[in-house]
């Protein structure tokens, strides 16, 4: 099966065919001698041309990473057969943009009102977590279209706090 | 000897103290808030009692609730750890009134050292060198006169201060008024005490501290120094012992002053005298921390002593089992404080579930940890997860050992500052020990060396991402529900799946 993998702004074509206990792997059309073993939970040991790598996967509510020898790579896999294929996120500044909580916490202050004009990087909401107050900043210049939380509210990581258009 | 000790804390330090209790045949009692029922410290204790809701002021900071548990469990002593109630003289006094031994100094010594201005007065009387400045609260007019006399830059500081709050650096005379007033109002808000005083600002000092131990029979010794100059926002990030700039002569002089400071305060148990050391290696009293420090393990490794054992023995009324001449330093130790925070995103805290935890081991590695794989790091407390300590014959090898340990360390599911330590340890100034309290801010103000991994690694990452998807797709696609729980079932599936090579 062929997967399109987006890593560090590049797209790799990985063709994987299972052959009994092993895999036949082509990367961008070139065959790569690959030897795979599952080690501890969630971890694969990869031997590629004699070099040893450890691969882990990390999926949280906010991101999906592959970790190679403790170095994280945000990875977007397009699997032609999978229903869960993810699209590369469009991070342009057109259209409405959502301000999301990067971590769980409590809303301690809201610094603008719906309809206010905000600058890119302007503090919109202050969230407190682990004894620290953190300013959530507007992702772009525009009008604050929507506020989805109130002061005192508990929020989850990835929860939408506001929308700027 | 004490029979049962209540540990009024959580996280790694609670586990640390309970381990010492177990080793000494002392029963331990844990207290826990509603979000900490499944915390590691609860499982390490012999007994555990709930003390209320998550917010610390309703649980870990409640003197009443903690004393109530101490009475119910018949604990004969309380170890406060660090943070929370550890430097609260009211708590020490309440313990004494309840007939429960507080493992630490008497309340009077805590009160003296808790007020920066009173501590400065006492230290000056005892002949301890202090940073030039005032030893009492000042009005703006007095501050202006004093600043003119000692010269700018000056630091305006809250008398009740700590943790960098109520502190303002002022470079020129016209800035003094606003700096003074900001410090005052911040001091009022943070400590309910607006008294501020003035000190000359020592540029690019090193932060070097002396560990002292005092028994209740008048014996005081010091256990060498720790260098804690790698700081962010006045919070220590890396500590080491010994300091690369402290030779035996300076060590003896600083040690003698620290012992003098402890004696003049009527100090008992473990404490730390903090100094600023300038480029000419002049040292000045900064403050005394009246508790066990986070960074105590580096001292333990280079002295071969167990500070918590000694705390428990001192609190039991024993005399110090060692004399000053018995204290020798051997090797070099470095500690990294591992926090649940994101260095790539403004150091935002990163609470949440630890999905995977791979811990380093092997020669020279010690870890004092307060969490486990599967633990949900609550957002209500300090974000420190663990302390990683490396020990080797010399500084260069201790750095190498720490780098190796960091390479083995993996925390999945939440962000940590592990990557920051690699950056610090590889910095030429750190390697040459050219560090001061501004080192880390300077390092962080420069863009991180491009995280661009080698082409090779990216290719491996691409293959791995496809493999994970392939394994997931062929085994549990239909069974896997969306959401985080899918990850763990998926990971189990990945393990069971036969993907062995050859």
Describe this structure in words.
Chain A has 165 residues and is an all-beta fold. Chain A is built from no helices and 17 strands. Chain A has two domains: 77 residues, 2-Layer Sandwich (Glycoprotein, Type 4 Pilin); 73 residues, RNA polymerase II/Efflux pump adaptor protein, barrel-sandwich hybrid domain (OB fold (Dihydrolipoamide Acetyltransferase, E2P), Beta Barrel). About 6% of the residues of chain A have low confidence. With 502 residues, chain B is α+β, with helices and mostly antiparallel strands. Helices cover 37% and strands 24% of the residues of chain B. Chain B contains 17 helices and 22 strands. The termini of chain B are far apart. The C terminus of chain B is likely disordered. At the A-B interface, β1, β2, β3, β5 and β6 of A face β15, β16, α16 and α17 of B.
Largest interface: A-B, 61 and 57 residues
CATH topology of the largest domain in chain A: Glycoprotein, Type 4 Pilin
Mean pLDDT across all residues of chain B, rounded? 91
* Number of continuous helical runs of chain A: 0
| Strand runs of chain B, count | 22
How much of the sequence lies in strands of chain A comes to over 45%
Secondary-structure element series of chain A: EEEEEEEEEEEEEEEEE
Low-confidence stretches of chain A: 83-92
Specify Rg of chain A, calculated over alpha carbons.
21 Å
Q: Give me the number of helical elements of chain B.
A: 17
Structural domain tally of chain A: 2
Distance between the termini of chain B: 61 Å
Indicate the low-confidence ranges of chain B by residue numbers: 474-502
In what order do the strands lie side by side in the largest sheet of chain A? 4-3-2-1-9-8-7-6-5
Strand content of chain B: 15-25%
The global form of chain A is elongated
Describe the sheet with the most strands of chain A. Answer: 9 strands, antiparallel
Features of this protein?
heterodimer; A: 165 residues; mainly beta; OB fold (Dihydrolipoamide Acetyltransferase, E2P); 2 domains; 9-stranded antiparallel β-sheet; 4-stranded antiparallel β-sheet; 17 strands; B: 502 residues; alpha+beta; 8-stranded antiparallel β-sheet; 22 strands
């Amino acid at each position: 099966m062929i997967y399109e993998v987006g890593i560090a702004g590049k797209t790799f074509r990985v063709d994987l065919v299972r052959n009994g206990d092993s895999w036949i792997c082509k990367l961008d059309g070139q065959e790569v001698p690959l030897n795979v073993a599952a080690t501890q939970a969630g971890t694969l040991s990869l031997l590629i041309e004699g070099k040893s790598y450890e691969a882990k996967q990390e999926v949280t509510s906010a991101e999906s990473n592959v970790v190679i020898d403790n170095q994280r790579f945000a990875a977007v896999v397009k699997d032609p057969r999978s229903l869960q294929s993810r699209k590369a996120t469009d991070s342009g500044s057109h259209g409405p943009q959502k301000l999301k909580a990067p971590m769980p916490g409590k809303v301690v202050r809201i610094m603008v009102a719906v309809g206010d004009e905000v600058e890119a990087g302007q503090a919109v909401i202050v969230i407190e977590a682990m004894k620290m107050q953190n300013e959530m900043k507007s992702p772009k210049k525009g009008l604050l279209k929507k506020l989805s939380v109130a002061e005192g509210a508990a929020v989850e990581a990835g929860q939408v706090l506001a929308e700027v258009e | 000897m004490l029979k049962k000790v209540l540990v009024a804390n959580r996280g790694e330090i609670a586990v640390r103290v309970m381990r010492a209790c177990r080793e000494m045949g002392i029963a331990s009692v844990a207290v826990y808030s509603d979000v900490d029922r499944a915390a590691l410290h609860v499982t390490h204790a012999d007994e555990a009692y709930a003390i209320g809701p998550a917010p610390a002021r309703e649980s870990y900071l409640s003197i009443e609730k903690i004393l109530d548990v101490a009475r119910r469990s018949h604990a004969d002593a309380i170890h406060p750890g660090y943070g929370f109630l550890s430097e609260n003289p009211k708590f020490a006094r309440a313990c004494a009134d309840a007939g429960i031994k507080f493992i630490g100094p008497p309340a009077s010594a805590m009160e003296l050292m808790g007020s920066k201005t009173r501590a400065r007065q006492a230290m000056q009387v005892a002949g301890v060198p202090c940073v030039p400045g005032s030893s009492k609260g000042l009005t703006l007019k007095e501050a202006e006169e004093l600043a003119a006399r000692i010269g700018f830059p000056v630091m305006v500081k809250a008398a009740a201060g700590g943790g960098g709050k109520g502190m303002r650096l002022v470079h020129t005379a016209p800035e003094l008024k606003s700096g003074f007033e900001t410090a005052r109002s911040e001091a009022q808000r943070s400590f309910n005490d607006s008294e501020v005083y003035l000190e000359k600002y020592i540029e690019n000092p090193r932060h070097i501290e002396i560990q002292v131990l005092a028994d209740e029979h008048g014996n005081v010794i010091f256990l060498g120094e720790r260098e804690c100059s790698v700081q962010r926002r006045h919070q220590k990030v890396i500590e080491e012992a010994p300091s690369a700039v402290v030779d035996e002569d300076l060590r003896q002089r600083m040690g003698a002053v620290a012992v003098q400071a402890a004696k003049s305060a009527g100090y008992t148990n473990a404490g730390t005298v903090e100094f600023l050391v300038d480029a000419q290696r002049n040292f000045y009293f900064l403050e005394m921390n009246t508790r066990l420090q986070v960074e105590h393990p580096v001292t333990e490794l280079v002295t071969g002593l167990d500070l918590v054992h000694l705390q428990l023995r001192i609190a039991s009324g024993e005399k110090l089992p060692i004399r000053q001449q018995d204290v020798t330093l051997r090797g070099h130790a470095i500690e990294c404080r591992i926090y649940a925070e994101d260095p790539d995103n403004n150091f935002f805290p990163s609470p949440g579930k630890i999905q995977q935890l791979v811990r380093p081991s092997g020669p020279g590695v010690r870890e004092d940890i307060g969490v486990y794989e599967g633990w949900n790091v609550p957002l209500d407390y300090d974000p420190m997860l663990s302390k990683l300590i490396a020990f080797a014959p010399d500084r260069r090898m201790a750095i190498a050992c720490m780098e190796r340990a960091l390479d083995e360390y993996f925390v999945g599911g939440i962000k940590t500052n592990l990557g920051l330590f690699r950056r610090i340890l590889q910095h030429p100034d750190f390697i040459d020990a050219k560090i001061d309290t501004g080192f880390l801010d300077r390092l962080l103000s420069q863009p991180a060396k491009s995280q661009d991994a080698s082409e090779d690694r990216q290719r491996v990452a691409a293959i791995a991402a496809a493999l994970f998807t392939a394994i997931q797709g062929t085994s549990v696609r239909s069974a896997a529900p969306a959401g985080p729980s899918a990850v763990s079932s998926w990971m189990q599936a990945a393990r069971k799946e036969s993907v062995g090579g050859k």
